[in-house]
Every structure is written in structure tokens, then in C-alpha cells.
Amino acid sequence: MYLFFHFSSRITLQDRDSNTLEPLTRAPLKKRKSEVCKCWSEDGASPCVLIETPHKELEPADPSGFKQYQFKNIFINASPIPRLSWANSDDVWIKMLNKELKYVHDKGYLQRHPKLQPKMRAILLDWLLEVSEVYSLHRQTAYLAQDYFDRFMLTEEDKMQLLGITALFIASKIEEIYPPKIFEFAYVTDGACDTWEIQQMEIHMLKALDWNLCPETPISWLKLYAQVEAQTDGENFLVPQFSQETYIQITQLLDLCMMDINSLDYSYSILAAAAFCHFSTFNIVHKVSGLTWDSVAPCVRWMTPFMDTLRSEATPQLKDFPRVKSDDRHNIQTHVVYLDLKAQERQIDIPDCQLSPVAAVSFLTPPSSTEKTANP
């Protein structure tokens, strides 16, 4: 389905003086003891098991009527998904909510890694988005890679570029029908990582993540919200009904926000709802997500500088990719030079002069499409 490329020049993320981070103390992954709470189905009789992690709650505020879920101090209405002929919409909704509890992300890992600064993470993620566009990878693949990287960093630290490219390699095998070969991922690092190192890091990362590789990313939540808003019934729910043009504008806002470390303060469903809110009304957001304004408002306010910056930029246009159908173009991850946008500098708020020598990584733009040649 996708066309692989050889480059006349390479995408690099490498500081010529110090191209890797020295490993710090490695801490084993601590498995959280799962707890169980119950919710009630619409008839108020049959319970559904919900996975709960410590310090988080997901329980019905009104069990008898299945009116709302409570998640921390957030109240979430019953499933906004229309009645489906092929599945129970409440079950689908509950499974998605459970993943918000199971997959924990926290920007606190920066405290464990003093050499890792927020701008370094932004540079790495920007580079991964760049690689994703070159290989026509889906947006979900790029966001899975981001999730793997951030969750892995909660356990330990290693070479940043090796971690990033390995996360993208794993994500592509989860999401893509025809993922790029491992040698192609090694190639774009310009010699910083070889195939053996990626394979070894893949094994290490999978064990550290305990093979939990299927979170609901901001992209999957956004796609659900957009589809529920556009859909009138559940007969063709799997066929996109929303505007591709509006969708890629919202995803560009999410891309810019994702590179800011403070995005980890919010759950993925909240991030998607806040981004959707900037392109819609809250009444619609409430309808498709069940979230209250009090739960979304802090994220909407935090996201406003990013949105203000994008308003001053050119409106993103759908791009054509080899062997990608026109009705699937909006799903392919695209890249702009996000690091040049002023909002990113304001949110990160770390002058270049304060970055450690390790942070002074270089990044190159991939060759233009005319310079890429397809594999035979």
C-alpha cells in the first residue's frame, strides 16, 4: 500500500560533539496493582468490570440510570456513540475509558532525568513526525510512538534517538499494514543507530512497557469525536463522514501541543476534546464526549497560545502520497517545522543558551519528493 523511499540525503537527529545521552540509573518497571470497580449497564442490572489504577476512579455517579461516569473530578456521560448493529456502543465506550486508566503518562519523568530537557523532547518528536511523513505513516502510528516514548521514560533513560526510532518502529508494526523495514529506520538516523541496536532496544522497550501497546491516543479520540458529530446512525459508523479539511487542521493543533511536555498533564481524551473545542462549540464537544466544561476548560485555555499561533500560519492542505487513496490522505501524518512556531517557544520557555550541550541536536529537512526514489 505504501511506497518506501531511498534518500539522497538523510534525516538526522544528532549532535556531532555528543550524540547520545549517557544512561542514568536504570529503575525496573513497577507494576501497579490493579483494582476493580463496577459500573452498571443501561438496564441497571448487569455490571461491567472496569480496570482501575491507584488514585484514579471511574465509577457511575448514578448507577441506577447509567447517566454518568466519574473519573477523578471529571464526570463523563454514558456512551455518545450511536447504536451499532455490529457491537454494543456502551461496551466500546467503556473499553476506551478503561484505557485512559490503564495507560499512564506523566511529565514527572523529567525530574528523574536532569539531562533531559523539554526542548530535547520537542526536537525528537518533531523529527519523528518528519520521518512519519517521509514513510507515509499514519497519524496513529506517530502518536503511538510518542506514547511509547513517554511511558518508557517513566522507567528509565537511554539514548534518545534510539528510543525514538525504536518507538516508531514498534508503532509501525502495530498500526501499519506494510511497515517500513528495520534497515530503513536505521538509515534515517545517519549511522547513529544500527539495526542490531534497534532490535535490542525493541525487546527492552517491550518488556518495560509490559507489552501494553494499544492506548487510545489523542488521534483515536479525535477521530471518534469527529465521527460521532458527523454520523446520524450507526450503520456506516466505520466509514468516515467528517470533513477531511477540518480534521487535518485539528490534528495540526494536536501535533503542536503534543511536543510540549505539559501536554502530559492532560488525559488523551481531554486533549482531543480541547482541540475539537477550538474548531467547534462546547455543546457539540459535550455531545460527542460527555465531558463537562469544568473538565475541559483548563486544557482549552492551555491550548489557546498554540491555536493563536496556527491562526497566523497558512491553513494546512491535504497532501498526496504515493499509493495512498484520496479518502485516506487525512490519516497520514504530516510535518511542518513546528519548532519554528513561536507558541512552542513560549510554552517550553527554555532559551537555547540554557540547554545543555547534549540538547544541541541538529535536525535536517528530508529531501524533496523529487529526490526520493521508490524501492523496486
From TrEMBL:
PROSITE patterns: CYCLINS (PS00292)
Function of the molecule: Essential for the control of the cell cycle at the G2/M (mitosis) transition.
Subunit record text: Interacts with the CDK1 protein kinase to form a serine/threonine kinase holoenzyme complex also known as maturation promoting factor (MPF). The cyclin subunit imparts substrate specificity to the complex.
GO BP of this protein: cell division
Record's GO cellular component terms: nucleus
Protein name (database record): Uncharacterized protein
Cross-referenced PANTHER family: CYCLINS
Stretches assigned to the Cyclin C-terminal domain: 216-338
Location in the cell: Nucleus
Record keyword Signal present: no
Family membership: Belongs to the cyclin family. Cyclin E subfamily.
